[in-house]
Design brief:
globular; alpha/beta; 29% strand
């Protein structure tokens, strides 16, 4: 049988039903592995040996306590769903990032971590194709690594070109493993491009930024491929511009971009924008519902067709968030009073809803609100 003719969904659906969501929070860190000088992979297992079910490219949400404060963060799964008895995330240490630094400095084998079930829609399983192009930069490599590992583990020699961008050769995550996958699969090709050679004197690969000319050299038939992209926002914007310039059909373009710790910069920009949006020193009046954040003693106005998280960020209110799609649960808060229209995608459980919890990223106000935040 020609595996290249198989529907990709058949492979993922063939995996056994595994980790029950009722077991959330019962995971144990079983290994910590250094990938580069500032990147580590953290592997988790269930105490009872049960396995995990997810699609390659999805993410999990960690519920942590740092300095006595509860903190949620989303991280893409880097492991393969075809090796279901462990699940891993790969985390780059972000300067000033409270969670990435805490994980690097504190989490060790044997520690227990509460983790919510896998979620997310950025997956090749939902977009079966004969030919893929994976484009990543920095730690954006993780979901595409999960996809690559899955195809390799399932002995599916899919036509895949994987192009990864890094600052220097020493910053390439999974360099050796990707090269081994390419060596063992005839139709898997991996390419690395670095901004500068760094300290590696043996580096013979291309240097500079990914350009349309470079893309045409490394993947001449990229116009025929299903494209998956993950990386920093400027990188993905550059990729979109490149593909648009080439006339690529956006229907076959997919990107994953959420990263909580980069949202801190966006929040600072929102504060500056809010400070600028004044008239004679007074905030400009807006039509909508009043949202009262009780603990921080902040009040904002949210339009009836606006999500509360969006209104809060526009007003410079600092709130934890990641996916902004109702999937990860990072922005979950207690609603003290008022009602909302919440259209979530699995980031909150029914028992939490019954207890008055809501996800601000996917909730539109139906009245004035008081939030326990």
């Amino acid at each position: 049988m020609d595996t290249n003719k198989l529907n990709r969904r058949n492979f993922w659906d063939a995996l056994p039903p595994l980790w029950n969501s009722d077991n959330e929070g019962a995971l144990v860190c079983c290994q910590v592995r250094a990938e580069t000088h500032d990147v580590k992979s953290f592997f988790f297992a269930t105490p009872d040996g049960s396995a995990f079910a997810f699609q390659p490219g999805q993410f999990i949400t960690l519920e942590l306590e740092i300095n006595g404060e509860p903190v949620n963060r989303c991280y893409t799964i880097s492991s393969s769903p075809a090796r279901p008895h462990t699940i891993s995330i790969t985390v780059k240490r972000v300067p000033g990032g409270p969670v990435s630094n805490w994980l690097h400095d504190n989490l060790k084998a044997g520690d227990k971590v509460k983790i919510l079930r896998p979620a997310g829609e950025f997956t090749c399983a939902a977009h079966p194709a004969e030919k893929y192009l994976f484009l990543s930069a920095g730690s954006g490599i993780t979901p595409l690594m999960s996809m690559s590992r899955a195809h390799h583990d399932l002995c599916d020699d899919r036509d895949i070109v994987f192009i990864h961008s890094a600052r220097t050769p020493d910053d390439i995550i999974f360099e050796r493993e990707l090269s081994l996958i390419a060596a063992s699969q005839q139709n898997f090709r991996t390419r690395f491009i670095c901004e500068r050679p760094g300290q590696r004197r043996d580096w013979s690969g291309p240097t500079g930024m990914l350009s349309l000319a470079a893309l045409k050299l490394m993947a001449p038939d990229f116009m025929e491929r299903e494209v998956f992209v993950c990386g920093p926002a400027p990188y993905m914007k550059a990729v979109r511009n490149m593909l648009d310039e080439a006339g690529f059909d956006r229907v076959r373009y997919h990107e994953e971009s959420f990263s909580f710790e980069t949202l801190q910069q966006e929040t600072g920009q929102a504060i500056a924008a809010n400070d600028a949006a004044t008239a004679n020193g007074e905030p400009i009046a807006l039509a909508g519902f009043e949202i009262n954040f009780q603990k921080s003693n902040r009040q904002i106005v949210c339009g009836p067709q606006q999500h509360v998280l969006e209104a809060a960020r526009n007003a410079g209110v600092r709130l934890a968030s990641s996916c902004a799609q109702g999937m990860c649960g990072t922005c979950k808060v207690k609603l003290i009073s008022g009602t909302v229209d919440m259209q979530h995608k699995g980031g909150i459980r029914q028992r939490e809803i019954d207890q008055g919890m809501v996800l601000l990223c996917c909730s539109k106000p139906l009245s004035n609100l008081v939030v326990d935040k």
